[in-house]
């Protein structure tokens, strides 16, 4: 099933990348994984020791790192780190260098709505990728459950509340680990997914109020939803150590979800991998430690 190939994972230390890297290293003969990272030493600590794992120094905002990182690479898993804002400046040359290096498939982790919403930076990356003449697969996931364990964690721990400017917006909840399974499946079967775009959806739609009730049930302690004013949310995120760009993006993603059209169609990960996805309740049960003070 797997072709003998070298896969470079951009964002290998990130939310999806950690799962994807582990999956590809542990489960697949014939695949050598290269974690692209700005800091190989730290990435090594984060990922631990895995078979068939190598590191490549790579920074999207440093064009001089592209050629070396892409040497002998057949496929790339690509993300748009929230901090990288100058899309044309960096992604255009990245695709040129990838083409020159002989990359045969790029799987891009985009975001829900990026096909039509021109304001999203992911929209421009999708366009550049489609024009690059490199076979591609674009994956547009919805909302990761892991947001609860990353950006929203501090408020859960300290104040037992979900504090987001989301109002009554309904989110489609997706486990990043399931999503990584789908991405791995696609990376190993490039011909089946050549030049396609997939809107990937989870099976559960909830408001944050509903999720707070699920949290209370799973964790056995009261968790409330507090609708945050957008400025207070940004300040709270920055105070908790988040970078300004990331805090702004998070605020916008939650706030504008109020005006988004409900998701009508998409592909579930079960349709791709045949594997049942985890429910949000299962995820919360597995992450009870989220409520513990550090
Ligand atoms: N969170 C969601 O619910 C959600 C849903 C759909 C789509 N998305 C999209 O998923 C993407 C990732 O978002 P995330 O917040 O989950 O981030 P993340 O995966 O935590 O991303 C951080 C990763 O980006 C890498 N990185 C940061 N700056 C870099 C640079 N200049 N060059 C190369 N690599 C760099 C980091 O690697 P090193 O530190 O090792 O270099 C790290 O692995 C975003 O585009 C977001 O819009 C997110």
Can you tell me about this structure?
The chain has helices at 15-27, 40-47, 66-69, 87-101, 121-131, 153-159, 176-187, 208-219, 230-239, 244-256, 269-273, 280-286, and strands spanning 5-10, 31-37, 53-57, 75-78, 105-109, 136-141, 143-144, 161-164, 171-174, 196-201, 204-206, 224-227, 267-268. Strand 4, helix 4 (87-101) and strand 5 form a beta-alpha-beta unit. The N and C termini lie far apart (44 Å). The protein has 294 residues and is α/β, with parallel strands linked by helices. The chain folds into two domains: 5-141, NAD(P)-binding Rossmann-like Domain (Rossmann fold, 3-Layer(aba) Sandwich), CATH 3.40.50.720; 147-170 and 203-262 and 274-289, UDP-galactose 4-epimerase, domain 1. It binds NADP nicotinamide-adenine-dinucleotide phosphate. NADP nicotinamide-adenine-dinucleotide phosphate is lined by residues 10-17, 37-39, 43, 58-61, 79-84, 109, 111, 141, 143-144, 147.
- Tell me the radius of gyration: 19 Å
* CATH architecture identity of the largest domain: 3-Layer(aba) Sandwich
Q: What's the shape? A: globular
Low-confidence stretches: none
Q: Percent of residues in beta strands?
A: 15-25%
Which structural class best describes the helix and strand composition? Answer: alpha/beta
| Largest sheet, spatial ordering of strands | 3-2-1-4-5-6-10-13
What is the rounded distance between the termini?
44 Å
Q: Total helix count?
A: 12
Mean pLDDT: 93
Ligands, ions, cofactors = NADP nicotinamide-adenine-dinucleotide phosphate
